[in-house]
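User: Batch of two.

Assistant: Item 1 of 2:
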Amino acid sequence: MVTLHKKGLPAWVEVAADDTRAAIKFYTELFGWTSQSIGGLSGKMNPYQPTQWLTYIETDRIEQTIEDVKAHGGQIYMPATEMPGGLFTVASDPAGTPFGIVEGTGMNDALNEVGGICWYELEINKAFDETVEFYTRVFGWEPHKEVESPEMTYLTVDQMIGVFTGPDFPSYFNNQSQWSVTFDVEDVEAFAKKAEGLGAKIEAVTQNTPYGDFAMLRDPQGAFFVVMKPNRSTK
């Protein structure tokens, strides 16, 4: 089971969109959420920011973490800023992957529940070893190697995060390193069709894997996310 609010692990997600009202409408109709249920829905901090789900990693000393990020090859895009319940900033790792850092009470209580988050994944298309080392040094990760082959390398962290790379980086990642978030649903195929009916794009559907069924989706404004019906016996 996932341990909630553990330092160095994801504690919050939000989707940054050009049209916040349209994003709220899409996700509330799709999942039945309120806009505050699980993640945040916000406008972009600047017009160059991609439309995406942003994963926030928890720390108990944000100013020290900011210095650690810079010392180990990452970048910080804004100073620590107050938010309800704590402080946050936005950073990127050595592969250029955007992510957030939050100090304060973790806010994701709906993990491993239908409609909630069941997995986070870091997909890396360059500087793989350097990037894994970055998270290890900055956030204290202890990665476990699940797969290492010519086709892919896959690590897991604390039964909560997957870390992926491979020579054939999936095109639906837009050839960029990214954090993605996976939501637990009961029927992947029906959910993907519902999302498509609301304007989403279905990037891929994978069924009957040892871990469950998946659909990779992109919302009407382009933010990538995954839905999954987990194989409950593997959780």
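Item 2 of 2:
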Amino acid sequence: MMSIENLSQTRALPIGLRALRIDDLPQMMALQASIYPPALLESAEVLASKISAVPAGWSSLAATEGDTLCAYALGYPWRSDRQPGWNRPLAPQHDCDVLYLHDVAVATAYAGRGIAGQMVRHLMQQGQQCGLSRAILVAVEGAQGYWSRLGFIATAAGRTDPAFGSDAVLMQRELLPSDPVLPAAV
């Protein structure tokens, strides 16, 4: 299994990657407020639940430069028979069959450096290692094109939670052992 430490060392990123922690909440709140419209802001309580209510050995990611949170990626095992919601606390999940990429946020000053892609790849690798074969997400704010470039396709599953916005699109992709998008194990 590739550790977060190995990932940041092998990818030559100008920042470090580590597990997201509860003490990152103040910077997470500031980061989301700087890049999302008010309707897409989540509360500190909700974000805290999404950091803590994950299986042992699972971690969402923080990208840091010194003490500054540059980006974060929240993802966790999920049940495909449940519709993802926005700004709702996460309770521990059981009988999960997909990886749900809930939120990938990058500060504007760090955009375009490949940070989001690296964090997504690491979360997808974690999903594979947990026996999950598919990843899902809700693309918001016109991000469908970005996710398409990472191999996600729109699903025919229907509507998403209205809180995601009128342009939200439910997307998915398979997680295959030979997937060239995933980093090779070190």
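The longest strand covers residues 68-78.
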